[in-house]
Every structure is written in C-alpha cells, then in structure tokens.
Amino acid sequence: MGTKILGTGVYLPEGILTNQDLENLVETSDEWITTRTGIKERRIAKEENVVDMARQASLQAIKEAGVDLQSIEVIIVGTLTPEKRFPSTGCLLQAELGIKRGYAFDISAACSGFLYALELADGLIKSGKARLILVVGTELLSEIVDWSDRSTCVLFGDGAGAVLLGWSEEESDILASRMYSEGSLWDLLYAEKNGCIKMKGRELFKVAVRNMEEACRNVIEKAGVSIKDIDLVIPHQANVRIINSLAEKLGISKDKVFINIDKYGNTSAASIPIALHEALKEGRIKRGDLILFTAMGGGLTWGATLLKY
Fold first, then answer.
1. Could you give the angle at the alpha carbon of 15 between the alpha carbons of 10 and 20, nearest 5°?
2. Domains 2-168 and 174-308 share a fold
3. Cα separation of 39 and 158, whole Å?
4. 3-state secondary structure of 9
5. Helix runs in the chain, H state only
6. Which of 49, 216, 266, 277 is catalytic?
7. In tens digits, what is the pLDDT along the chain, a chain of 309 residues?
8. Residues 6+ apart with CB under 8 A from 177
C-alpha cells in the first residue's frame, strides 16, 4: 500500500505585521531583523482562531483532492497553540468540518508537529488501518509571543497548512522518514503553561543545523538515494541563516531550497505544509521530483521526510 498526496491547502490571515511596525514596538530595525532572520513581514490573525485557520486550509485541500469529506477517517493536527486545553484542536476541526466518522487528535511537537503527524498518517495508511487522512499544521503564535522581547517577537507568525493523504496501489509518495527527540534539551525553546515563548537562540542554532543535517542524511541513506538526487528541500521556516547553513552542510545549492520565511516568519507546525502548497502552485515541484522535508522544534524534536511527488 502506498501513501499519496491528494491535495494541499493553506490559510493565511490578512493582517500583516512588518519589520517597520515592530520598530514601533521594541528596540529593533528592519535591517537587524532581515540580516539575522530573513523575515520582512509576518501574518497576524485578528479575528481568526486556530480552528478557523485549520478549517479553511483543510477545505482547500479537500476541494483540490476532489473527495467527499465524509470519507475522511482520521484527522491529525500538529499545533503548539491549541484552541482549548481540551478537547483537541483535531476534534474541534472535525466538528467544524461536519465530519461524522473516524477520529481526530493533536500532536504537540512544536515546529516538528507536521512531520510527526505525517509519519503517523503514513504508518496508518501503509498498515491498512485508514485510507484517507487529513494532516494539518495550524498555529496562532501571536497569542504566546512576548511583544516586549525583541529576541522572539520578530520571529513568529500565524497560519495553517493542510495535506490530504490517501491510500494507493501505486508507489508511495513518502519514501522514508526519521523522527527524533531529546527531552533533556527542552529549555532551549519552550513556553510555560499560559506563558510566552522563551528561547536560547545561539545554542538552538547550533543544535538545529547539526541535528537536521544528520536527520536529512539518515533519511536519504534509508531511501537509497544520494543528496545530488534531491530536487527540492522544503525546510521548516525558522531562520534563513539556519536554512542557509543546513544547505551548505548538505552540499545543496540554494536554488534547490524553498524559502518563504520573508513573507510569513516562523509559523511552527504550519510552515512546511504552507511552503509545500506554495511550491506546488509556483511550479517548483513536478511529478517524480524528490522532495526533502526537515524540521526542528521545541522538545527538542526534529526529523526529516523524503517524498517522491
């Protein structure tokens, strides 16, 4: 049994917060933010909540796939900003979509949440336990940002991305994946209950590049391909310096790396599905291409997934 990507969707709030806007909030500058992060602006939800954004992205993916939403058997949501303590954002999304069958749940793996969810969905489909699974990354990070902390408030944005996965007798789109965590490093990036994001940026930078490189190399080896075979890398959009350092370590040219952090900032679990959707719509991906996903987030969690689209 193979796992196929049937449709993708995104939702991005209309509200835009530019670097110039942030100059009025904290002691910073457009040059400082751009040089260190690659971010020029980010989307900020005004009225939407995390479920609203997930619903809009999901409906787009379902429409693109051309399937009956009542045939969806599982919903997996990656988020670190759930709408409620409980029930899960997945269950709330199920209700908003009007889906009456199957089950739904959340994954809390921070910026790696989408890849963790993709890993589980792939396993469920290949084991024959489900045939149609909706995987969503949705974040309302503006709710947990300390807008007086210039080291973190410049980084994060809101948004959602969705991918509808289905069973197929053909070769699987997902060739290989490797997921990791290291709980002893939790204090490099975290948020206390009802608190704001805290980050040790310098330490996290080094760990992120090293661990994502290792994950990428391991998944490429597992799939039996080489780095030169990779057509496009879609990394978690955390920081352009991390992305550039990773590409250099892997020996992959920058024109093979998809970057949209300049428009949206770090949207955590939503960043990879948003980037995948945009890469497809921009014609950066064609059938048969090898696509490499990689992410790292609080936990610490990280991983990589190799896709043959």
1. 120
2. yes
3. 14
4. strand
5. 19-23, 30-37, 50-65, 89-97, 113-126, 201-223, 240-250, 261-264, 271-281
6. 266
7. 799 999 999 999 999 999 999 999 999 999 999 999 999 999 999 999 999 999 999 999 999 999 999 999 999 999 999 999 999 999 999 999 999 999 999 999 999 999 999 999 999 999 999 999 999 999 999 999 999 999 999 999 999 999 999 999 988 999 999 999 999 999 999 999 999 999 999 999 999 999 999 999 999 999 999 999 999 999 999 999 999 999 999 999 999 999 999 999 999 999 999 999 999 999 999 999 999 999 999 999 999 999 999
8. 115, 118, 119, 122, 219, 303, 304, 305, 306
Q: What CA–CA distance (Å, rounded) separates 35 from 57? A: 31
Residue 153 designated active-site: no
The string of DSSP codes covering 75-124 is: EEEE-SS-SSSSS-HHHHHHHHHT--SSEEEEE--GGGHHHHHHHHHHHH
pTM over 0.85? The answer is yes
Please state which of the four CATH numbers 3.60.20.10, 3.10.180.10, 3.40.47.10, 3.40.50.2000 is assigned to the domain occupying 174-308. Answer: 3.40.47.10
- Pick the catalytic residue from 19, 91, 111, 153: 111
277 part of the active site: no
Domain 2-168 sits in which CATH superfamily?
A: Thiolase/Chalcone synthase (3.40.47.10)
**236 catalytic per annotation:** yes
Q: How far apart are CA 46 and CA 25, in angstroms?
A: 18
Which one of 153, 236, 239, 277 is the catalytic residue?
236
Assess contact for 122 and 5: CB atoms under 8 A: no
Specify the DSSP class assigned to residue 169: S
Taking the domains of the chain in order of start, what are their residue ranges? 2-168, 174-308
